[in-house]
Design goal:
- By secondary structure, the chain is of the alpha/beta class.
- The protein has two domains: 52 residues, DNA polymerase, domain 1; 269 residues, Aldolase class I (TIM Barrel, Alpha-Beta Barrel).
- The protein is 37% helix and 19% strand.
- Helix 7 links the parallel strand 8 and strand 9.
- It is globular.
- It binds S-adenosyl-L-homocysteine (SAH).
- S-adenosyl-L-homocysteine binds next to strand 8 and strand 10.
Length: 350
């Protein structure tokens, strides 16, 4: 495999910098992961060495477009992978008290959830660890210009993180060990890949697990989340219980509310039952469905969202309604479909 900058370990850097004292490697490492500098900006080393590093270890992401919405609080980066040209996206969200980066883990996605723009577009290839880490570094560099530090990472961009678990795990270690983001501020979101959940449970850090549930009975979930046919709800819940036992971190369920499909009293009751069957009870994140070109059904209206959330709360389940960020720049949940014709975006927004 060709070495890229953010795939490189300290040992790789040391090889490229052969002949230099060991502390030089640390200077570069700190420039990359503490200061979020480009190699060319790391002036603790000589210009010749910067040149040598930049040539031997190129970066992986070429910026195609940066789109801004919510008065600058949501920034979507559209990149092209230097290797192979596939488009991927990263979203940076500034909140009053924190900055969150939503990263992609695959170019495209093979899970084919009908309501998700990435699922509609299909799968290109896995991302490498460096391609995942570089998204965070470049977003952090952007945040730094506003004197803000990235505090949370959510693996909720394009792709299914647990279908690329080894690369995702290595990225988590880099973010935790080198950038210094604590495990409780790292969240892996999965469609419900049971072997991936089980592997994650064996990993040393207690990262948060979010499960994209969307339906609490198999016939409906088979429709919305096709992988449910392979990993049905009962088995998925067993894997969640085992993850909880080992990690002792509350699990959250994501629920995209789709009008007339999964927003009825029956759905809320079934979901509450599932959530309450975990100890501690799962937290529910309600996401009113965001529009995508390939899915005709709409999101539940505001009153319906409130009713659904209240019904869960009445049954003792904590539920948060996630605010839609960046809908106008197609940066909202499930809207990441880089490369989709611009005309579709324009038409949806008029
Ligand atoms: N593959 C992972 C991460 C993907 S996206 C997973 O499935 O969890 C993160 C969340 O956005 C998932 O819960 C996903 O189901 C949800 N999502 C996808 N499309 C959406 C849409 N159009 N509106 C709202 N949420 C959506």
């Amino acid at each position: 495999m060709t070495a890229t900058l953010y795939d490189a370990t300290r040992a790789t850097l040391a090889e490229v910098m052969a002949g230099e004292p060991a502390y030089r490697v640390e200077q570069v490492w700190s420039g990359l992961y503490k200061q979020f500098q480009e190699v060319g900006q790391i002036t603790t080393i000589s210009a010749a060495l910067r040149e040598k590093l930049a040539t031997a270890l190129p970066t992986s992401l070429a910026l195609v477009r940066e789109s801004v919405s919510d008065k600058g609080d949501t920034v979507k980066f559209l990149w092209r992978l230097v290797d192979g040209n596939h488009p991927i996206e990263t979203v940076l969200m500034h909140y009053a008290d924190r900055v969150t980066v939503c990263v992609s883990t695959q170019a495209g996605c093979a899970m084919a959830c009908g309501f998700c723009a990435t699922g509609q577009a299909g799968f290109n290839r896995q991302l490498t660890t460096g391609e995942i880490v570089e998204q965070v570094v470049r977003a952090a560099r952007h945040a730094k210009q506003r004197q803000q530090r990235v505090a949370n990472i959510v693996f909720m961009g394009m792709g299914e993180p647990l279908a690329n678990e080894p690369a995702v795990w290595a990225a988590i270690e880099r973010l935790h060990d080198d950038i210094g983001i604590s495990a409780r501020h790292l969240t892996v979101s999965t469609v419900g890949i049971i072997p991936g959940i089980r592997t994650l449970a064996t990993r040393p850090l207690p990262v948060n697990l979010a499960v994209s549930m969307h339906a609490a009975r198999d016939d409906l979930r088979d429709d919305l989340v096709p992988i449910n046919k392979r990993y049905p709800i009962k088995d998925l819940m067993d894997a969640c219980r085992d993850y909880l036992r080992v990690k002792n971190r509350r699990i959250s369920f994501e629920w995209a509310l789709i009008a007339g499909v999964n927003d009825t009293a029956r759905d809320a009751n079934e979901l509450a039952k599932l959530a309450l069957s975990l100890k501690p009870t799962a937290h529910v994140n309600i996401i009113p469905l965001n529009p995508t070109p390939g899915f005709p059904t709409r999101g539940t209206d505001a009153a319906g969202v409130r009713r659904f959330a209240d019904r869960l709360r009445d049954r003792g389940v904590n539920a948060t309604v996630r605010r839609n960020r960046g809908t106008d720049i197609d940066a909202a949940c499930g809207q990441l479909a880089a490369g989709q014709p611009v005309v579709l975006t324009a038409r949806r927004n008029v």
